[in-house]
C-alpha cells in the first residue's frame, strides 16, 4: 500500500514548489512596489530569520500536535498568508510594515510543516513496504526536483502572469498540499502528543537527546560548517569567479545549476543502490567529493568546461548525503521526539549560513579570490574527516 507514501511525496513537492515560487516572487514584488534594494534586502531578512526560529522551537509543538495535523495547519496558514499579499495590494491595504509581518508569519508557519512531513516518512514508508534508504532518497529527490523546477517556473510565471498572479498560484500550492495531507491515514505519521509534558520540558528533552547522541551531534556539526561554506561559495565566490575569471555572468548560473542537477541524479542513484552500500564509507566519500573538488578546480583555474564537469560530479556525490542523514535520524530518534530533534538539527544547520558570505567576502578582500578558494577547499577537506577517523561514526553501519 504505497499510495500514502506517494501522496506524502506529492504534498511535499507542492509545498516546496510553493516555497520556491515565494522565494522569487516576493523580492520581485517588493522591487516592483517600492523600487528599493534596501527594502528588498529587509524583506529577505524577514523571510530568513523565522526559519531558524521555527526550526529551533517549532519541533516540540509538532510532536505535541502530531505530524498530520501540524503539516495541514502549517500549509493552510502559509497558503492564506501568501494569498493575502496580492489581495491586500490590489485594495491598497498593504503597507510595507504589514508586508514584513506577513512574510515573517508565512515563514514561521511553513517550517514546522516541513519538519512534520519529514517526520511522517518512516511510518508511511513502512506501510508501503519501501526500504528506509529508498524512502529517504525519494523524499530528498522530490525535494531537490521541486526546488529545481520551482525557480525557473517562477521566472516564467512572473513574465507571463505578473507577481500578483504568481503569488496567488503560490498560495494555492500550499492549500493543495494541505488537502493531500488531509487524505493520509492519521496513524501513518503522527507521533503521540506530549501528554502532560510542558513545552519547555519537551524542548529540553529533544536537545538533551541530541546532545547525548554523539553520532548525530557530530553529523549536525559537519552540516553546520558545510552549509556555512556552501553559502560563501554560492553567494560570493562563484559570483566573483564568474566576473573576474570567466568574464561571463552566465558562468555563475551554470556552475550552480550543475551542482543542483548532479545532486538530483545522485539522489536517484542512491535510491536505487543505497541499501547495498556501506553507510559510513559512502557518507564520508560523498562528503569529501561534494565540497573539495568543485572549489579546488576554481582555485587552479582549469578550463571552464572542466570546472562544470567537476561541479556536476561533486553534485552527484552530494546526492547521497541527505538520504543517509535521514536514515540516521529515522533509525535513532524515537517517534515521540522526532520532530523536535529534527527541528533542532535543522535550526543549527541554518544558523551559520549568513556567516559564510561574510567570511568569503572578507577573505577575498584580504587575500584575493584564489587564496579564498584555497582556504575554503582546506576547510572542506578537514570537515570531511570525522566519518573516516571518528569512533562514534562506526555506529552508522
Could you please describe the fold and organization of this structure?
The chain has 397 residues and is mostly helical. It is built from 16 helices and no strands. The protein has helices spanning 3-34, 37-65, 67-90, 96-127, 132-161, 163-182, 199-212, 214-246, 250-273, 279-299, 304-318, 321-332, 338-351, 353-367, 369-383, 386-389. Helix 4 (96-127) packs across helix 13 (338-351). The radius of gyration is 21 Å and the shape is globular. The two termini are 29 Å apart.
Write the layout of secondary structure elements.
Layout: H1 3-34, H2 37-65, H3 67-90, H4 96-127, H5 132-161, H6 163-182, H7 199-212, H8 214-246, H9 250-273, H10 279-299, H11 304-318, H12 321-332, H13 338-351, H14 353-367, H15 369-383, H16 386-389
Helix pairs in contact: 1-2, 1-4, 1-5, 1-6, 2-3, 2-4, 2-7, 2-13, 3-4, 3-6, 4-5, 4-13, 5-6, 5-9, 5-12, 7-13, 8-9, 8-13, 8-14, 8-15, 9-11, 10-11, 10-15, 14-15
Subcellular location: Cell inner membrane
Transmembrane segments: 7-31, 37-58, 141-160, 217-242, 254-274, 281-300, 306-328, 340-363, 369-389
Keywords: Cell membrane, Membrane, Transmembrane, Transmembrane helix, Transport
